[in-house]
Amino acid sequence: MPSAADPSVGTPSDPVPWVPEPLSTADAADVAALIRRSREQAMPWLPDLHSPEEDRAFFAGELAGSRGWGVRRDGALLGVALVRDGVLSQLYVSPGW
Q: What is the pTM of this model?
């Protein structure tokens, strides 16, 4: 799967048909990786408290108890939104987007 740094993913100025798709627990690894990359770039001062495996387990639980949507391009997850109990609980966009 290409990363956000991969030129095959495109750039924010490219025309993209933004069609959100529902997310499920099967998407936990992609969601966890996107959020980890986004946090590392946007907030590099935050300590890394959890392993990638712990992140995947956490987001599998979040996806199981939330309604979630993601936007992909060429298979790469570029954005995610999760709503729990009517409240937006997670909103992340891939670095560079």
A: 0.80
